[in-house]
Design a protein that fits this description.
With about 300 residues, the protein is an alpha+beta fold. The longest helix has about 40 residues. It has two domains: about 140 residues, no CATH class; about 150 residues, Porin. It contains six helices and eight strands. The protein is elongated. An eight-stranded antiparallel barrel has the order 1-2-3-4-5-6-7-8.
Length: about 300
């Protein structure tokens, strides 16, 4: 128990360090941008523009000090993000929001959330807002940071136990089957290596599966090599995935006989949760005496 707690504390410390580094990087960017904009105030601004520009820069200073910056949990590379999943705004979005133009912030976040300010020159409302506040598009682009979301990949062993119930057809007609099996393999996890300590980017695994199945025609050993690909890019405890691979039927008796084919499935699992269970819908087809076997199956099991 103590070793598990120590491991959790070390992991939390690593995440905090990554988050702190990202915060420091974003803050340094914003402070450089703020100083650049303050040092280059245009001389042809109207009094109203000067006042709004000053107010915007004062609000920018408060934003910098608060250090509540958005988290890039959308793409796996450094990118601007207007508003993140928790509603935290980037510096430019914060300044627009503070001036009473939340509708503009919402529209850009809904339609062009990852756009760079330089690419928003075709947004008339944004251009008008910048003009009213004595800011140029280049200055706003300088203020806007990008947010890191780098990833790392690790390998870990994976194991499963399962039971299944299948229905289909063989050469002799309708067929029902039931079985028990195990899977052993390795899983490649892609995880965050930056400020987003809550993000998980899914995984790919390669596992060997053995099932012993019984039918009214006899029993057989089924061996397969399964590749599994998670469909959820940002999953937590619930994961959807596809898997499939070649399937070999091995039987020392004459019936139902040896054979070869493949299987493909869709699954849902709670791997990583308190109860690491999974359910799969599987379609398999393989040759076997006296002909081709085609089955649909429901598989249930536990996964680690």
């Amino acid at each position: 128990m103590r070793s598990a707690q120590l491991g959790a504390l070390i992991a939390l410390a690593a995440c905090a360090t990554a988050g702190e580094k990202e915060t420091e990087r974003v803050r340094a960017h914003l402070e450089r941008a703020e100083q650049h904009v303050r040092d280059r105030a245009p001389s042809d601004l109207t009094p109203a523009q000067q006042t709004r520009r000053t107010n915007a820069l004062e609000h920018l200073r408060l934003y910098i000090e608060a250090e509540r910056y958005p988290i890039n949990d959308i793409v796996e590379y450094q990118s601007p993000i207007f508003v993140d999943a928790s509603g935290t705004r980037c510096a430019v979005a914060e300044l627009i929001e503070a001036s009473g133009h939340g509708d503009l912030v919402a529209r850009i976040a809904n339609t062009r959330n990852l756009a760079r300010v330089a690419d928003l020159a075709d947004e008339p409302q944004l251009v008008a807002w910048l003009s009213e506040h004595g800011l140029s598009l280049d200055e706003a682009a300088r203020i806007q940071p990008s947010y890191s979301n780098t990833t790392k990949s690790t390998w870990e062993p994976t194991a499963s136990v399962l039971g299944n119930l299948a229905f289909g057809r063989s050469g002799d007609g309708a067929q029902a089957a039931g079985g028990l099996g195990v899977r052993l393999g390795a899983r490649r996890n892609t995880e965050p290596d930056g400020a987003c300590d809550r993000c998980v980017y899914g995984s790919t695994s390669l596992a060997g599966e053995y099932r012993r199945e019984w039918t009214d025609e006899g029993s057989t050993n089924l061996v397969s090599l399964l590749v599994e690909y998670e469909l959820d890019r940002f999953a937590d405890d619930r994961r959807h995935y596809l898997n499939g691979g070649p399937l070999l039927s091995i039987d020392g008796n004459d019936s139902p006989g040896d054979g070869f084919g493949g299987q493909f499935g869709y699954g849902f699992s709670t791997r990583g949760g308190d109860y690491p269970l999974f359910a799969e819908l599987v379609l398999s087809a393989f040759t076997q005496t006296p002909g081709t076997v085609i089955r649909g199956a429901l598989q249930l099991g536990a996964i680690w």
